[in-house]
Amino acid sequence: MISLGTSLALAGAASAAILAGIGSAVGVGIAGQAGAGVVSEDPDKFGNVLLLQALPGTQGIYGLLIAFIIVLNIGVVDGNMKELTLYQGWSLFIAGLPIGIVGLLSAIYQGKVCAAGIYMAAKRPEETAKGLIFGAMVETYAVLALLISFIMVNGVKL
Amino acid sequence: MLVPMKKATLYALKDDREAILLNLQRDGNLMLITTSDGNSLPGLTDVDSALEKTQDAIKFITVHAGKPSPLSPKPLVQYENFLQKTDEGAALSNQLTSLSEKITSLRNEAATMLAQANGLAPWADLDVPLENLSETNSSAYFAGFLAEEEIAAVQEELKEMPAEMLLLGEGNEGRALVIFAHKTAAAEVKGLLKDHDFTPVIFPKRTGLPQEIIDDLTKAATMKEGLAEELGGEVEKLSGKAANLRLYYDQLSACQERLAVGGEETEKTFCLTGWLRADRAEAVAKAVAEATAVYDLQFAEPAEDEIPPSVMENTAFAAPYEAVTEMYSRPKIGSLDPSFMMAPWHFIFFGMMLSDAGYGLLLTILLFVVLKVLKPEGNAGKLVTVIFLGSISTIFWGAMFGGWFGLEFKPILLSPMNEPLKMLALCFGLGAAHIILGVCMKMYLEIKRGQIWNAIFDQLSWLIIFAGLGLMAFMPDTQVGKYLALGGMTVIILTGGREKKNIFRRLLSGVLSLYNISGYFSDLLSYSRLFALGLSTGVIAMVINTIAHMLWQAGPVGIVIAIVFLLLGHTFNIAVNIMGAFVHTSRLQYIEFFGKFFEPGGRAFKPLAIRTKYVNVSK
Prior knowledge:
The complex is a heterodimer.
Chain A: H1 4-41, H2 46-54, H3 58-73, H4 86-123, H5 128-155
Helix pairs in contact in A: 1-2, 1-3, 1-4, 2-4, 2-5, 3-4, 3-5, 4-5
Chain B: E1 5-13, H1 17-27, E2 31-32, H2 44-65, E3 76-78, H3 79-83, H4 87-120, E4 139-146, H5 148-158, E5 163-171, E6 174-182, H6 186-195, E7 199-200, H7 210-238, H8 242-260, E8 264-265, E9 269-277, H9 281-291, E10 295-300, H10 322-328, H11 339-354, H12 357-373, H13 378-401, E11 403-404, E12 407-408, H14 420-448, H15 452-474, H16 480-495, H17 503-514, H18 516-526, H19 529-552, H20 556-597, E13 616-618
Parallel strand pairs in B: 3-13
Antiparallel strand pairs in B: 1-9, 1-10, 2-9, 4-6, 4-7, 5-6, 8-9, 11-12
Helix pairs in contact in B: 1-9, 2-4, 2-8, 4-7, 4-8, 11-13, 11-19, 11-20, 12-13, 14-15, 14-18, 14-20, 15-16, 16-17, 19-20
């Protein structure tokens, strides 16, 4: 028997994975389109471009990370689902939101920055690292959201 | 450390110029300064165009014969052999260029012919030779395409007129058809066709039945393709000589570099100026002396208004981190090379972010092999070494946090998953030390330049505030911390706007500069990424292990899949997290650390040297 609290916690895990995952998919997609254009001109730049394309993919990983910890804590993984109270459920639901929402938006913007970085790498391949750093500036906020989500999930005593 | 530089001025005879330049290039210590008019030596344009041609030829032969394996070492060429320019390389380059042009034009012709044949395809059933398709005294004709749905209507109306319609095959623009009409009805038919969006066709200028023409064109195209194939085979035969072509390219590019800078000259003599490291003056003098006895060479300290290039030199541990510094910018001459101070922090932070001892161990072994076998050079080599050092640090931090391939095993220091607040405190503690070191570096720079008051007002005051705040946090019982912090703040308020004349504006900007505290605070918070990235490595490794565990329980097939999944999953996790750890560690250096003291904008030092792409030259 799954309580309403438990299913709310599952909804929190789901939203962390879904939203951040969508963000990364869009971000990596934007960067990938730019990358394919550059590689069509110069296939040797594939390595440089791939690094930049991969960068917006981390939000999806962060979302998965929080979702996994929630799912682990409520006992889905080992098959002994705990019955959570409504408050515990709401708390875990809310804890999933920071990385979900920030991950969604930051990955999209990071994808745009990385696409710009890919165009930069096309003209000046030796400056690829600077493009990576520009991307990392956007990712900072996903990292912060991940941290707060983690601390919140960790703080909900079951 | 930034290496002190000297400026060399050389006068010598033009007759000796080639020998001198060759020796200087072999020595590789002097960076020639381009004169204001940017003149170069005669013959440069020829070398430029030959180089471009050879590069295209190399690209062309690579397409046909494949690249040399990136793992195989570059062939070693003796210096004496490197200097001997063979005609073979030039001949090969020319031969390949003409082959490439021939193949391209053959392919283009074949494509044009095939396109024509395709265009004629709908007319294949027409049993009138194209040259006969013309107006006669009493008849006109219309050939072209009509949309399928219009045909019935046109047919209907044509029945009333002295005209005949011949329906042919299907084309892109509709049904191909020919209409023959009596001259008297020509205008009428034309109007009718126009009403139904008739598209007239323009036949190629050829004679014969359409089907015959199509056959001829296809045959000719196939023949041309075959010829192109044959020529491609010839290129493949030449691929054995590709090594000569690559050597020729490197010879040309060395020659190009020698010719790039002309310097001032008179009828018989020339003058060159250049930068060199102060400690390499002897080597340069020797290189010139070996070429000629008639010369004058002087070394001088850089003048006030001259900006020498920045050269960094560091200990074996810090040297690879120059590449990280260089990614941001070279340090401005007269400032500080941050590599030696940054290196230990980059080392520590990289390890904390990757933070899995198992991954660290794997990477250490793998990169050790890469460094030994492939011997990557230049910046790439430095970056690989940085990651290699970072993976050693990863083993340390992994053991501290008890992370081994995502499994927790006896954390020596603490377990970040279970004690997140302690972990955050550790991150902020390291961050505070990093930031304070940055402020100290700025202080050092200011003192070195004699700006002692700047150092006291702008840096020491902040350090006092930090010390005060630290005391307040850890020893709340004593009042010392409070007074220290207040003292530091007072200094900042009083001196923060000291360049302003007006006393009120001076105090106001003093108060505003106190606002920098928020900057320091956000810098400090930024170090929480040390925790977050470590968390990401650990938890994803855990996810991989959990899923593999589930697969494992599903029977023998599951076990195989689980092993494959473990291998792929952990490889992916390592790859993603190396990138994350490197990028975020570098960011912490660039924004939080360099921001405090680093002065970017140094010029690159690019001495005249033998720079090869395809071969190694032994000296």
